[in-house]
Design brief:
Quinone Oxidoreductase, Chain A, domain 1, alpha/beta, six-stranded parallel sheet, seven-stranded mixed sheet
Amino acid sequence: MKTIKAAVCHEFGQPLVIEDVLLADPAMGEIEVTLKAVAICHSDITFASGAWGGTLPAVYGHEAAGHVSALGDGVTGLALGDPVIVTLIRACGSCASCAGGKPTLCETPIDGGSHPLKTAQNTPLHQAMATGAFAEKVVVSHRQVVKVSDDIPMEAASLVACGVITGIGAVVNAAELRAGQDVVVIGAGGVGLNAIQGARIAGARRIIAIDMSEEKLEIAKEFGATDGILATEKKPWIRAMRAMGKGADAVIVTVGAIPAYDEAPRYLGRGGKVIMVGMPHSGAKSTYEPVILAAIGQGMIGSKMGDAVIQRDIPWMVDLYQQGRLKLDELISGRWTLDQINEAIEDTKSGSAKRNVILFDT
């Protein structure tokens, strides 16, 4: 095992602690990646707050990019030094979900407490979300990474690992939005902005952004929103329908706020569907009127990680970025070091940041 620096959560709701930890060598089918960048996702913050439970101590972080620095046995298609995007999607490739084209729903359990991390005292340290990327290096399954070209900045590449594939995938894969259709995106944060980009790329006619912040609504228009409506308005769905001339074909809920889920079906048109992306705290409940959905053919479906197939979707998205059709650099609000991670988390909590990125000198 080798010693690396990592930001460790020892107690829910408390600051992370930068300390030395032990990282195992890659086993069969695994690779080691020396990270150049890891973005801070709200899911990391929610986990570290204890809202979804979990095992402690733990290393969070799952939106990363870097270079392959070691290979386990049985790994093909990757070489030392390859630039890769590291995702949390650890798909076995052989269960019913994986074989059916749904790797985000892989049914093979992951034991993040047994491998590859240990504390400096050689006691258990949980690799959260199968990644543990708030650290200088990670050891992950080779199925979790996608090789990218050398000319994409690692800080931009890291964003693709979660926020970008989740937002764009929710529109393209889950909603199956077609050119000329209308979409409402509730929440104009990191995932919401990418849902808006996804709708623009898919050829949506009207893209309505809903948020609590006027500033975020203006930013949403830079990413492709045609209209911005404050969620604090009385019955904002009425204004949205007036802008579209009808109800939405799809409503993408990118925030974990229960009021957003309660109101989402109100934006729908006939045959439309709500795509549930944002994750409320465990135990939170939403209410809606099912008779309306049944009467006019509406639906509500969950979408995990944008239903992405990373080997298919990430190269496509990186190519869009290289063509100038997908904004990644503009998503970055701040750049921080690992020692500044708690300040970066607080800045992300403030709601003003799109994505904060931790950069490594290694």
